[in-house]
Automatic annotation (TrEMBL):
Organism: Streptomyces viridosporus T7A
Tree of life domain: Bacteria
Gene3D superfamilies: Tetratricopeptide repeat domain (1.25.40.10)
One Pfam family of this chain: CHAT
Signal sequence, start to end: none
Protein name: CHAT domain-containing protein
TM region(s), chain numbering: none
Segments forming domain CHAT: 621-863
Matches recorded under InterPro entries: CHAT_dom, TPR-like_helical_dom_sf, TPR_rpt
Length: 870
């Protein structure tokens, strides 16, 4: 291409069709000493590339040269166009007044079609600054002219911008119409960057309408498109942070925002984007319970937005700053006034976040005892409960519940909490991935706590039980959506197993594995990303918990009692259910029980090795202290029948059989009373098929499997090279009884990648979720299979909790490392009871009693628990 080439003006649309090629061609044009008009175009192309994808300092330098060359070419239209590009760059650099002046001069210099393009870019600048009505006015003036000129690219850009502004103002339906019209136009062009931006915008629209799985899928698709073009994705980072936060993944949002800020600083990128990323990081840190980080990020964002004259954004950053200060314990009258002022400003700006600020002002005022002020602010926030997206309505119902509490109306509190949690129930059921369902419950934690406190004051033990169940282990109330028959997902999981197996083999040989571990982490991100795209079923959370039904089931057969532990304001309340009634007892502090449980776990780990017998009295003493903290006076009222323990998520690692009053009992554990009821009422599959699996690398070689194969004459036995993940899953599906002897690994950083080691690599939780029906009973003679990650309000993610909603009625699993040799006699004794027709809980109790009385075998027995009711 030469300086005199007629195709030089075509470089401008090429910036967003093939950015790298446009940059290279523009640089070649400048090397050929072009005439002023072409020099102006080339410098403008380089300036746009640097503005959007590189160094703002270089962008401004090239755009000023483009303006100067346009003046030399004596082309008012060319100068108007460059002034518009320069104005946007100045705004992004934080030089708001200079930028808007340049855009104003561009509007004055341009005519007709050129002026319409300048108006579009000024509208974009108004949007960046948060002046949404001004943005809509400029777009209104630009669109008819662009359409009349049959300018497909700029018309599509204008419609996309107008849709984005509508979203900022909460007008989702208008935004959808504009996005649809723009997408139709983009399909007729080769503007690949603009097309990627359109996909990203559709992701934002899906999020604003409450469809988190669709939003994640579209944002991932946009990222793939940007990656092919080699362009940065800072706006996409900001939008994905929003979606991740709404999905309960605040820590991930914070990591993404901070990483994007480092990248932006590294290239000298846009100041406006840095401020927005800081705001996203502040919001994420606040939701991740890191108020100090939130304060630091929000304060810097406020400073940058103020310098950029971006009142809309500055006000939102001030809201996050006030929320973070309140979370850090800095409640004061000044903070109430600040929150109220932010609420008023957000209302004036037409921002959907105004109810959040009013709720915050009301909450702080309540803490200070300013009931009149609190009522005024909470009433304003409560108006959002009737309409809008789910989380906005929940804000309104939270405000209504606080109003009722301040007025002393327990009935009003419970009604508001019920309505708010119903909204969240419907929202959760649109999420297909079990992880998202579990994490989404965090949004309802405050409502659940308010309802429990109101129940304790006015409703008696039965009502407290109902509300404890209302928001406990709700992710297990329905099976997760089955992962789609997605070839990319299936091949990714196969590749993951292969890489993980190669890494494990290399570790055993003492070889370095960093490259394999990097590839494993990449595949994990890909698998997780695809599973998060799954949509759930239609709204509706299933049957409501019925106390009478629970008590009826408990009184059947041998009778028995269910012990549900509720935590209110840090103290454990024991709800003892059985013999037709529910009784309440107060026990100890949750924090003390958690500390004691960690001591017990450490003791069990020591006892798993021969020669640690001296630790046995210490562990037993810790068990006695745990009983006092967790059961208190209720321990004396357990009767003689079976006991079901329903602990809060934070106590999932307690070895309940170690507690003195539970040691000789038929004992099972359940994430919730509702979950236990479902397990109790689950019918076994026809045929009674048994599956025995032996994984590689066990110290004993999985010695119990060979003997069990002899006991269960027709059982399917998978071992050695036959124990591959696809074969194991095929046999487990719909089995009546499965026994898996394999190394177990719990992943606290990614609980759904917790695994059992098979011949061809790890069998992970995501694999189990592909089963049509998991085994009716499953025995896992593996370390750490009963460990979980606590997420959301009171949810658990792990291997056992993946099985329970899929048709498994009973699981035996282990919460600590155990001695492989000592496991063998325990498992053989357990199967002897199962073969005699006993439940897993009764068979496990008898198996413990049959073990030798030494410390090693006792610790092994305590480490295993029976879950469910089979």
């Amino acid at each position: 291409m030469t300086a005199g080439s007629e195709s030089v003006p075509e470089l401008l649309p090429m910036v967003f069709a093939a950015p790298g090629e446009a940059l290279a061609r523009a640089e070649r044009v400048l090397r050929d000493r072009p005439p002023p008009l072409h020099a102006s175009v080339a410098h403008q192309v380089i300036g746009i590339w640097q503005r959007d994808f590189g160094d703002m300092r270089l962008a401004l330098s090239h755009l000023r040269r483009a303006r100067d060359w346009a003046a030399r070419a004596d082309s008012a239209e060319r100068e108007a166009d460059v002034l518009a590009t320069l104005g946007v760059a100045l705004v992004h650099a934080g030089r708001t007044r200079q930028g808007m002046d340049a855009l104003g001069r561009g509007v004055e210099r341009g005519t007709g079609h050129t002026r319409a393009r300048v108006l579009f870019r000024r509208a974009y600048a108004w949007w960046v600054l948060g002046h949404h009505q001004d943005a809509l006015e400029d777009v209104r003036r630009a669109v008819p002219v662009l359409r009349q000129a049959d300018d497909v690219i700029w018309t599509a850009r204008a419609l996309t911008l107008r849709a984005t502004v509508h979203l900022a103002l909460g007008s989702v339906e208008r935004a959808d119409a504009d996005f649809t019209a723009a997408e139709t136009l983009w399909d007729t062009t080769d503007q690949e960057h603009d097309k990627a931006d359109a996909v990203e915008s559709r992701g934002l629209a899906a999020f604003r309408s409450g469809d988190i799985p669709a939003a994640l899928k579209l944002l991932d698709e946009a990222e793939e498109r940007y990656a092919k073009l080699g362009t940065p994705t800072f706006m996409l980072n900001i939008r994905r942070c929003e979606v991740l936060m709404a999905a309960g993944l605040a820590a991930e949002a914070l990591a993404e925002a901070d990483a994007a800020i480092r990248t932006l600083d590294g290239i000298g990128g846009q100041s406006t984007r840095k401020a927005e990323l800081l705001l996203a990081a502040a919001r994420a840190a606040r939701l991740a319970d890191d108020p100090q980080t939130a304060i630091a990020r929000a304060a810097l964002a406020v400073k940058l937005f103020a310098g950029q004259r971006r009142a809309w954004w500055e006000t939102h950053a001030r809201l996050v700053l006030i929320e973070a200060r309140h979370a850090a314990g800095r409640g004061s009258g000044r903070l109430v006034a600040d929150a109220a002022a932010v609420a008023e400003k957000l209302v004036a700006l037409g921002a959907p976040a105004a109810p959040e600020a009013s709720l915050l002002a009301g909450r702080i005022a309540l803490d200070l005892g300013w009931t009149a002020d609190a009522e005024r602010h909470l009433a304003a926030a409560a108006r959002s409960r009737r309409s809008g997206p789910p989380l906005a309505r929940m804000t309104g119902w939270a405000a209504q519940a606080l109003r009722a509490r301040a007025a002393g109306s327990a009935r009003g509190v419970l009604e508001a909490c019920r309505r708010g949690l119903d909204v969240l129930d419907d929202h959760r059921m649109t999420l297909g991935a079990s992880e998202l369902r579990a994490r989404a419950t965090a949004q309802g934690a405050e409502l659940a706590a308010l309802a429990q406190r109101a129940s304790l004051v006015s409703g008696g033990p039965r009502r407290l039980l109902v509300w404890s169940e209302r928001w406990r282990a709700t992710a297990l109330s329905a099976p997760p959506t089955r992962p789609p028959a997605d070839p990319a997902l299936l091949s990714g999981m196969t590749a993951y197993r292969e890489i993980a197996a190669r890494a494990e083999e290399a570790r055993q040989e003492g070889k370095p594995v960093p490259a394999l571990e990097r590839e494993q982490r990449r595949l994990e991100r890909e698998i997780r990303s695809r599973t998060l795209h799954m949509r759930g079923a239609a709204p509706g959370g299933g049957d409501r918990f019925d106390v009478g039904r629970l008590l009826g089931r408990l009184d059947e057969g041998d009778g028995g009692q269910l012990v549900e532990l509720a935590v209110l304001d840090g103290r454990v309340h024991v709800l003892l259910c059985g013999q037709g009634r529910v009784r309440r007892f107060e026990a100890g502090l949750l924090a003390a029980a958690e500390t004691e449980a960690e001591h017990v776990q450490a003791g069990l780990r020591r006892l798993a090795h021969p020669g640690a017998e001296a630790r046995l009295p210490v562990v037993e003493a810790a068990g006695r202290r745990l009983e006092e903290l967790l059961l208190g006076p209720a321990a004396a009222h357990l009767g003689t029948g079976p006991v079901v323990i329903v602990p809060p998520g934070r106590l999932h690692r307690v070895p309940w059989a170690l507690l003195p009053s539970l040691r000789e009992r038929v004992l099972s554990v359940s994430p919730s009373a509702s979950s236990w009821l479902r397990a109790k009422e689950t019918a076994p599959p026809p045929g009674g098929r048994q599956v025995l699996v032996r994984g590689p690398g066990l110290a004993t070689g999985g010695a119990e499997v060979s003997e069990l194969a002899g006991r269960y004459g027709g059982a399917t036995v998978l071992e050695h090279e036959d124990a591959t993940v696809p074969r194991v899953l095929a046999e487990l599906d719909g089995a009546a009884l499965a026994h898996i002897a394999a190394h177990g690994t719990f992943r606290a950083d990614g609980p759904l990648f917790s695994s059992l080691r098979m011949a061809d690599g790890p069998l992970i939780v995501h694999d189990f979720e592909r089963l049509d029906r998991s085994p009716y009973r499953i025995i896992l003679s593996c370390c750490d299979t009963a460990r979980f990650a606590t997420v959301g309000a009171d949810e658990l993610l792990g291997l056992v909790t993946a099985l329970l909603p899929l048709g498994t009625a009973g699981v035996v699993a282990c919460s600590a490392p155990v001695n492989d040799a000592a496991v063998v006699p325990l498992m053989l004794a357990l199967h002897q009871g199962v073969g005699a027709g006993l439940s897993l809980a009764r068979a496990l109790r008898d198996a413990r009693a049959a073990l030798p009385g030494d410390a090693l075998h006792q610790a092994t027995g305590w480490a295993f628990s029976a879950f469910g009711a089979a």
